[in-house]
Amino acid sequence: MSKTLTIMLLSGSAENEDAEFATRLSEAAIDKGHKVQIYLYGNAVNLSKKEIPIEGDDLHIAPRLLDHIEPTKNFERIGKICAAGADVSTCHTNEHARGIESREYVEGVKWGDVGGTFTKYLMTADVLLSIGH
């Protein structure tokens, strides 16, 4: 029997392992036939936006650290989760507070708010996880 997993994600990429854990858990739930809803809140709203790479080769990041950071980025995984049927939305108020509201969303991510979107997620959740530090 299919259930709905709802995640409120509070952490962004490279901040800790929360975003990677939440996106991989979501992939596993979808693979098992469950519905997934993710509400991006706090620093997690940064995951809702398409990556804007820095031009040029000089990132001022040591190659060893870069090798560690790159696999923890979650932009592509968020897009894949959306393409697989997950309902992913972001807190517009948190986007505004971080000055990123005008940036383009990762394909499939939706504009959201606590009073409407997250409340709907809460009312339709079978399991609710709040993931963040």
First CA to last CA: what distance?
A: 32 Å
**Secondary-structure element sequence?**
EHEHHEHEHE
Q: Count the strands? A: 5
Calculate the mean pLDDT score and round it: 93
Uncertain stretches of 5 or more adjacent residues: none
Strand ordering within the main sheet? 4-3-2-1-5
What is the approximate shape? globular
Biggest sheet: strands, sense, closure?
5 strands, parallel
Nearest-angstrom radius of gyration? Answer: 15 Å
Helix content: 25-40%
Helix/strand class: alpha/beta
**Number of helices, where a helix is a run of at least 4 consecutive DSSP H or I residues:** 5
Properties at a glance:
133 residues; alpha/beta; five-stranded parallel beta sheet; globular
Write the SSE topology.
Layout: E1 4-9, H1 18-31, E2 35-40, H2 63-69, H3 75-83, E3 87-91, H4 92-98, E4 110-112, H5 114-124, E5 127-131
Parallel strand pairs: 1-2, 1-5, 2-3, 3-4
